[in-house]
């Protein structure tokens, strides 16, 4: 097998048409593993990635450059009413280029729910374990040692210890990590074992042709067959189409654009599954609390996520659970996320080095009344879609609960001030003031809600009348189209999703290859 | 002339400054204000009759609902002047001079002068906003422009805040009050608008490395980033060692990465 190639948009001056066995749309956690396994099977594979090919040469550890190059909509993707901010990657490597390296296997509880409620009998811990073992070895997945956790994670660790809550150390996909703290801005030393520096180059070495800066716009299909994938070449800076087109004519197509862009591509192609495409999107909605400490926390420094707690992940029937982690805190994103008036924000930023930020990541998609998020095409929009999310009473109950628990943890770890991210922030100077959160409004655009995990929108399931892809990830109604990414998950996970998607992709590549 | 509607009007509702109307669909209008204007305003801000006062009703048409904003965003604007400000030496790429003036005024209020922090002029925040907008979806540019014009528009400021002036011409105290109204409004659309504009300005300000010393942010650690690192694209070329596994000889890791189980 001769070596493949990465072709960047600036190299494409004239229209291109290529034939191949498999076209994979998207180079993130789903597309990368699928492509690698397919080239290993000897298939000719062409990958289209709308983001640019950005490498450590450009990873200069500054926020503006990172958000411009590595995030969807410069990091400004959101629901239409800005009630939920969506942090999502967009470059070669997808989310894995900018995520915070947290690696969890799919919880048994979730796989059971998928089997019981969605008829997914193909995926189980037994089926996925050999894939997870291989993946963990290739990506050097290992628990981050307690003696290396940064001050920001230490706040969570100590708070959890003081309150007697369950706590653990996160397993990270890093190799010779320097504990710098810039995972979210692109690892400057290739220590993070993202798809960008591991699985994708492995696949290129074995024959993958990867077109970056190529936005797949339409799948042409007739009868039960996808005939071609048409893509626009995008300008490297403005991200607008240059006018050059790439057309791929594959035997099999794999859509791996993630839970927002995959449904959008299907909708542009009039593959709607009777309206189910883009429905039931799950976001792991995140609530944040900020705390000020006497000592310096320097939450921008060191491995960003190393401590977690699943203490509240299952809060019993009718309640939404959540898990606790912390984010890295760099000034630009912190100031945007912070909420409040201008003077309040500047005042807060004077304490920047002393701030801890905590995350409560809510497990959506498990309660019967939930419908989750909806992705729709937006008239005149190119990369921007209409996105809505339906918050239920269970969301708001859980959000209030988690904010109070985070404040308790932050005070237990010695905070002198804890602040919510309401549009009109709630500040508390001791644990005796938690009732201020009882009085605070929990409603859309009253309190900051964010997501770094996008799931669903092309959900898998046995019943074609309630799902988009079958339990083998084949699109219902077409013979040669598969969806392999977070969009197929029928619920959220209760853990950071990258390893779930890695595992499903590596598993799916086996039978996708047989469909060629 | 739409402005004639204001001729000889009484004061707006006394509570208008602090407590914008509840989106109930049944709104008592201010004495002296023509119902036609109120209807238009209601269309801008309020859900259709009978709709639940939630974002489902208000925002069904999308972020800041382009059509809703267009109803009132520009009408009165051009009868009342904005403050004129100096434009960037290298020009504007997206914003008009008028929109640039609005962003400038907004930036001074969202990032007020404070010891140790560079001014928004030193950081060229308004220019930064213009440059950010070159990289976003056309629909987001349109909505941002509409939002700026809506902020500037004297009409809602008058009806909801009792101020008969464009935003850029208000005193700084009055500008702060307008922003406070948007920030804490009962109307989701106004909070959404505040969140959008606040985010744009903060991004443009804190994107600058001139702000780093003010907040104690050290910026990138020296000696780590290699601007000449090899970029491997396959095609038969040998894959560099650094691609996939960091070269240990460059810097020793702080400690072995192995530890207990979670």
Protein model, in words:
The complex is a heterodimer of chains A (516) and B (262). Chain A is of the alpha/beta class. Chain A has 2 domains: 5-140 and 178-281 and 452-514, 3-Layer(bba) Sandwich (FAD/NAD(P)-binding domain), CATH 3.50.50; 146-174 and 286-363 and 392-448, 2-Layer Sandwich (Cholesterol Oxidase, domain 2). Chain A has helices at 29-40, 63-70, 108-118, 125-138, 151-163, 199-205, 258-268, 331-337, 342-349, 393-412, 435-439, 498-514, and strands at 5-7, 16-25, 45-48, 85-86, 102-103, 141-143, 168-169, 171-173, 209-211, 214-222, 225-234, 241-255, 279-282, 286-292, 307-308, 322-325, 355-362, 373-376, 386-389, 417-420, 427-428, 450-451, 455-457, 481-483. In chain A, the strands form 7 sheets. In chain A, strands 1, 2, 3, 9, 10, 11, 12 and 24 form an 8-stranded mixed β-sheet that branches. Chain A has a 5-stranded antiparallel β-sheet with strand order 16-17-14-20-21. In chain A, strand 2, helix 1 (29-40) and strand 3 form a beta-alpha-beta unit. The radius of gyration of chain A is 22 Å and the shape is globular. Chain B is mainly alpha-helical. Chain B has one domain (15-214). Chain B has 11 helices and no strands. Chain B has helices spanning 35-45, 55-58, 66-73, 97-110, 120-123, 125-133, 138-152, 154-161, 172-184, 188-206, 212-215. The relative contact order of chain B is 0.13. Residues 1-78 and 245-262 of chain B have low confidence and may be disordered. At the A-B interface, strand 1, helix 2, strand 7, helix 6 and helix 8 of A face helix 7, helix 9, helix 10 and helix 11 of B.
